[in-house]
Amino acid sequence: MPMSATEVRDLSKEFLEHVYAIPEGEKINQCIQCGTCSASCPSAEAMEYGPREIIAALRAGMLDRMFESNTVWLCASCYLCTVRCPAGIPFTDVMYELKRLGVKKGLYAKGTPNAVMARIFVDSVQRYGRNAEMRLIRLFFMKTNPLKGVGMVPLGLKLLKKKRLKFGVKKIKGIEGLRKMLAAVEEEEAQR
Amino acid sequence: MVKITIDGRKIDAREGQTVLQAAKEAGIDIPTLCHHESLDPYGACRFCTVEVKSRGKTKLVTSCTLPVAEGQEIRTRSEKVKKTRKILAELMLARCPNSTVIRDLARKVGVNRSRFRRPPEDLATITDQEGCILCGMCVRICDDVMQVGAIGFEGRGVRRKVTNPFREPSDTCLVCGACSSVCPTRAIEHSRIRPQKPEVIPFEFEEGMSGRKPIYMEFAQAVPKVPVIDEDTCMHFRTGGCKVCEDNCSAEAIDHEMEEKIEEIEVGTIIVATGFKLYEAEKLSRYGYKAYPDVYTSLEFERLCHASGPTMGKIQTRAGKKPEAVAILHCIGSRDENHLEYCSRVCCMYSLKFAHLVREKTGAEVYNFYIDIRSPGKGYEEFYKRLLKEGVHFIRGKGTEVTDVWETEEEKGKLVVISEDTLLGVRRRVPVDMVILSLGLRPQDDADQVSHLFSIGCAQGGFFLEKHPKLAPVDTPSDGIYIAGACQGPKDIPDTVAQGAAAAASALSLMDKGKVVLEPVRAKIDEEKCCGCKLCVANCPYQAIDYNEEKKVSMVHPELCKGCGTCAAGCPSGAATQENFEDVQIFAEIEGALAE
Amino acid sequence: MTGEPFEPRLVGFLCRWCSYTGADLAGMSRMEYPPNLAPIKVMCSGRVDPTFVVKAFRDGADGVLIAGCHPGDCHYSTGNYKALRRYPLLLNLLDQFGIERERVRLEWISASEGEKFAQVVKEFTETVRALGPLCWKERVGAGAGAPGE
Amino acid sequence: MTEATVKKKLVYSYFPGCSLEGTNEAYDVSTRNAARVLGVELRELEDWNCCGATAYVAVNEKKSFVLSARNLALAEKAGLDLVTVCSGCYLALYKANKYIGRNPKLRAEVRNALRAGGLDFAGNVRVRHFLEVVVNDVGEDAVKRHVVRPLQGLRVVCYHGCQIGRPFGDIDDPEKPNLMDRLLSWLGAEPLDFPMSSKCCGGLMMTTHPEVGMKLTGAVLKCACRRKADAIITACPLCQVNLESRQEEICRLVGCDCGIPVMYFTQAMGTALGLGSKELSLGDSLTPVEEVLSAKGVLS
Lengths: 192, 596, 149, 300
What we know:
By secondary structure, chain C is an alpha/beta fold. Chain C has helices at about 20-30, 50-60, 80-95, 115-130, 135-140; strands at about 10-15, 35-40, 65-70, 105-110. Helix content of chain C is about 40%, strand content about 15%.
């Protein structure tokens, strides 16, 4: 279901509010559409829209299209666009805002692998205080594409031979404290 | 005047001349190898031998050492002379059988092979064995003229050779190149004297794309059009010797003792027209300037396509190849928060000019990478359209990176420009042979100091600030100081000329009046109230207040006072006031501003 | 108290060469900033007598801005340094009156800094708004004479 | 002991990070051992937690800052600079530290959360990358003094990856970093000009979008191959894994057959400092690291 113009407007507004909160975020309005970001982006070729087009879409009131595309999820956060942008827009941070908004609103194409991975990652930190690599990979392939996971077996065996696969996960000692900290953020956010 | 006869021709020679010089002036060719204007005659090669008849006797003498004398009769082509030259040629040929200079000379006098035996191997250490004829010019110029004395002779007879002391690499040699420049057979090998590459002095005006001498013309249109001597590289200033240029100047116009002079001129008005500087390409490492030789700044390219430039206007790569494709990257450094925030205004048009010249001169494909084409001048848009007609490519997207990392065969050995074609939303890689960076304009390095010097202030970006953008575009806050040209902001030639004329007219109109109108804002001191504390004397930045010892009060010199009012603000007794800005007036203003 | 937000009244002493021109530029450039500041032109920030500031407070100002050329840029070469030196003395004086130091602000604003001028006025208005009305009479006493009277 | 002498003695809090506990143990081992030889004391941060990097930021930024801040608070307690070798952790911690320091509102919120878990953070910690510590704090003279087996004849390309110089550019040029090149030349190796030095390896995309990630890693490998490098030196665990784990497959994809060893700068440095294969876990590598070092005669 495509969004109505009002819905898109509200979405853009919410997005901009978040962007303005990041340092230098208000510079998003200064974009001159020069294409430096898209030309610098290592994954631009695989993106349905380049980074530049995100701002063009925002201005045109078509931001919803960006959430339907693979664009934001292909950002590898290499920060090349950020350091090069002649308008000083912290574009990598803007991409993160889009990811977060997408996750929050469930606005991403079904099975977007990064969103799945991010959720497992967050869950792992909540449980153990650290990321458990093996668990992450295992769950990731289970939830996205078990067949592809099978394709990873040879690499897994190689790593296993080198004793580079660690199965156990150690919980940090202060896990309770950490959970309280994260809960405090949630509480604060809920209040708003 | 001395009257002599050469080969039957009567010649007027000058007192003190040698026969060789007199003959040369008269256009009579006497072959020689070891003669040089800056060196004393030495007679080493003996090739200039002539037959001279005086007082009835004839004898063979080297003409380079023979002074002219009244009534001398000289023969330069007699059988005796010819025979002597042949023998000399044979001797030289025996020593240097492979030297082209010697072989050509020998052939000229009819010698093709030598009857003499070749001297033993290892004749020379610093010279090419095949070439050195032991004329000693290198040793003499190094010693007598350059006053360095890095090389000398060693051994005698057939073992004689030119060497470094102890045959060790020299550390006294200054790598000036005088030895090789005088060597008649081009036999010197620098690296054997001192293993250090002779440095080319980069010619500033040509952006270092060609070299220059220590004495040079700064540029073709220099005013006054006289050469200058660069003291840092001139041999005379390094060793006290040389002065070869003086020997060569027939007008005797060169004076090494002349010093830089600073003249103080009293003037009534000043026009500041200090220009701009090109933004530094090195600050944008992603374009590979300096890393890739065929990435040029716009100023470098300007010289490259100029008829008087380093290639005489031929557009070619550093390797001397005609380019097949050229990329011009607009907005480099300009419109960029990390560099110059403003639009440099002239780059679009000069980039279009470059594109046109490349098309015209080489027929190469030209790719302009631009964000916006700004052509808002008279006839400018028409020029843009003409280029579109000429088939120049325009890619709307900032040229983002230049790399030599190739992905396809087509890109191999080329420079690849990466950009987004924003009209298509597609990332493009364009392989080219040359890249021109259209760099922005920035203020001069000392703009800040100059602005302080004249109290004129700088606008954002660092260019000088005009008094009013519309009503006083060439005036400054300092009366009598005017600004013109790119020091006020990036601008092209027509605008600069117009502004220059305006500034000159403004300066003239001020001078024409012959008097200056002062503002009616002055400090004054009420003698009744003054307690003589002298605080105002210390406060005044213009020494416009003096303390009158007799009256025990301070007094203002109205012609010196500029009316800042600092004295009034600091006066404890309320004696110092500022006309038109008196306390009561300001109080009234405050009251007015705060009235309900 | 009515429900209306408190609108602070500010007086600005602007040097004629830099800050006043900067304010002009802000206007010419159609920059938006709160209308709370009443500018008063002086030839130089060095002309600002501390009594001007006290007078302004006494007459109902909630904040006073003094603005001059950047150090080194003074049209009269050193007037702004004099202003800078007087500033701490002025603050001491205000301390004695029990007036918050934040109510006086010294800024360097050049002729080209229209944007900065607007920004300073915006910030200063908010600062003083947060401090609330000065209420000179309640604090210093109705009887306190103002300079120049 | 005063703070100054602690600094002088080169003592740091050490943050290994989750990845060094997992597949990249070799990086941890070689870091600790090389540091020991250089006289740098790395004290592991007591009970550290996930830094909150990339994948976490995509869900909740504030929580990720809190995760970083917990580590920063622990380091502040220890009173030492916080050093890490993982570029991902480095940037997450560095950025959190910088933003928390710059933004009072964020600072208040983060401290609030920390206090809920019994910690606090005043903002007096420096976050450092071990590479920069070696180059700047240990310095050229000391490093050279400790070299016992110069990496003579080893042609290397230094692959800095994205997150050392970017986005802040505080420790190295954001686009043309050269910290590692300097270090490797002190160790006697020959660092080659490497235009891909700070280009992206694909990061997490190797798992989530392998078709994209492999292309990017492939471009790095191909360039290293063309420069005829003996080895790629990295300073990031993710780069290392991406460059070596599926190298054959990737090379086939981009059309080069190099089989190029990939090692951490700590492994290269440790070798030059005289450490053995075991102490540097060289055998953990999926690429022929030991072979190339032996062939060059720098590994006995």
